[in-house]
Amino acid sequence: MEATIAGCAELGVPGIGLWRDQVAELGVARTAALARAAGIEVTSLCRGGFFDAPGWFDDNRRAIDEAAELGAAVLVLVSGGLPAGSRDVDGARRAVGDAVGRLVPHALAAGVRLAIEPLHPMFAADRCVVATLGQALDLAEPYPSSAVGVCVDTYHLWWDDQVWAQLARAGAAGRIACFQVADWITPLPEGVLLGRGLPGTGCVELRRFREAVDATGYTGPIEVEIFHEDVWSRPGGEVLRETVERYVEHVL
Amino acid sequence: MEATIAGCAELGVPGIGLWRDQVAELGVARTAALARAAGIEVTSLCRGGFFDAPGWFDDNRRAIDEAAELGAAVLVLVSGGLPAGSRDVDGARRAVGDAVGRLVPHALAAGVRLAIEPLHPMFAADRCVVATLGQALDLAEPYPSSAVGVCVDTYHLWWDDQVWAQLARAGAAGRIACFQVADWITPLPEGVLLGRGLPGTGCVELRRFREAVDATGYTGPIEVEIFHEDVWSRPGGEVLRETVERYVEHVL
Question: How far is A200 from chain B (nearest CA, A)?
């Protein structure tokens, strides 16, 4: 955490999205102080959600509080998969909407926006029943856009021919709370979690997404997200520099 | 092939969908004779497509001829992924539609129906750019439904909340050429090809799909498709019996 925040400051990266488990290692207060001292904005906290887990309500309230303490405007929500033994994906999606609704008062009070993130349909069974931007927007719709938005992640959405219309819908409704760019590389590894390479190493039209999000009037941060053993095994400073270069080349 | 066809006959399974590579091992004429002698209908041939491969046109014409010789009414088409180095998924989908169109005269002459199969979006980059039933129907639309239909496979479509409306659309247009049931089990293995268990071992609402397809007026065959190392490593006869039992329990 210290090295990453220092590295961002050194390279002129103005903000960083953080993960709760890594924040917990250093402590929320210390992480917040570190980012503040370096002039780095915490753009989002990943992640709340997992509404199928016991204790989800209290845990999500804690996540909202942590985001607020970090100065993060957004808490990203990954909904969780089907309840054990269930095949009712429609019901699971409705339950996600209800759970988000129960968090709205606490989010509004804390000044943290909830961002429902659609994950790629390959995660629909065991990680996130919300699988398209259209579904995420449907779930967000009953709640004020100041409290509930969506997270647009290119990795999860690139295959969907409806995504361009749904981006326009999201923009018109002021629902884009978070924008993440990540590239899709094959073959997918076992468990399919760690298949995201550096920008430009995969097949996603990253610049097309950035332009489409820009066109909605979104002016918030753009986060680059990379999950890949080959990338993670390299020195962090080197990866950070290459990420900035590739961001300029493939996204900006 | 001999054992499978004999096993189907013994268990009262009236038809079987075949794969080209396995037909080629025994020979098309011999396979056709074997199925005919056993009173087993060849319900479909898998697969044509891969329109990004060199020689696709001639190879697909051969596949149509093979289907005709086997008495299979349907050739299933898996479109292929993005051309090497390309990120243009829209363009790749348009090219699939054009390629299918070029095959229509030969398919009509041979009396074989082409079935565009949408594969799960996790295959969109490297195996099949057609990722939803809606996309498959869009691509089929310019051509007569007697020549071009779609293949409905529960494994690929279960996560999609649009699928019920698209099934109704497919039925109204007479486009359902093939109906395959396969179940989704997790975790996904490396390469994600072999994640399909026996009916009822996963999270797909198989009966809901069967009823929805029935409701469109479809009266054709229902194929069960299983790709999993654990299943393949068991004796074939045992798997076939369990498949029939599970089909009755979870699909019929």
Answer: 10
Nearest to A87 among B126, B160, B205 (CB): B205
Give the model's pLDDT for residue B191: 77
User: For residues A176 and A220, is the Cβ–Cβ distance under 8 A?
Assistant: yes
The CATH number assigned to the domain holding A74 equals: 3.20.20.150
Q: Taking the CA atoms of chain B, what radius of gyration do you get in angstroms?
A: 17
Q: Does A120 touch chain B (CB under 8 A)?
A: yes
Provide the sign of the torsion angle of the four alpha carbons A99, A102, A107, A108, taken in this order. positive
Mark residue B50 as left, alpha or beta (left: phi above 0; alpha: psi -120 to 50; beta: remaining): left
B212 in A contact zone (CB under 8 Å): no
B194 touches A at CB < 8 Å: no
- CB-CB neighbors (< 8 A) of B204 in chain A: 87
Q: Which residue on chain A is closest to B193 by alpha carbon?
A: A188
Residue of B nearest to A190 (CA): B190
A203 interfaces chain B, CB cutoff of 8 Å:
yes
Structural domain for B40, as ranges: 2-250
Q: Low-confidence residues of chain A, pLDDT below 50?
A: none
Put simply, whether B122 touches A (Cβ < 8 Å) is yes
Between CA B1 and CA A51 the distance in angstroms is 47
Residue A39 is classified by DSSP as T
Q: CB-based contact (8 Å) between B210 and chain A?
A: no
pLDDT of residue B192: 80
Helix axes of B236-250 and B2-11: crossing angle, nearest 10 degrees: 40
Residue B247 phi/psi, 5° resolution? -60, -45
Helical packing angle, A89-110 and A133-140, nearest 10°: 60
Overall domain count for chain A: 1
Tell me the chain B residues in contact with residue A93 when contact means C-beta distances shorter than 8 Å. Answer: 161
Which SS3 state, helix, strand or coil, does residue B1 take?
coil
pLDDT at B193: 84
Chain B residues with CB-CB distance to A204 below 8 A: 87
Interface contact B200, partner A, CB < 8 A: no
pLDDT in 10s for each residue of chain B, 252 residues: 999 999 999 999 999 999 999 999 999 999 999 999 999 999 999 999 999 999 999 999 999 999 999 999 999 999 999 999 999 999 999 999 999 999 999 999 999 999 999 999 999 999 999 999 999 999 999 999 999 999 999 999 999 999 999 999 999 999 999 999 999 998 888 878 888 989 999 999 999 999 999 999 999 999 999 999 889 999 999 999 999 999 999 999
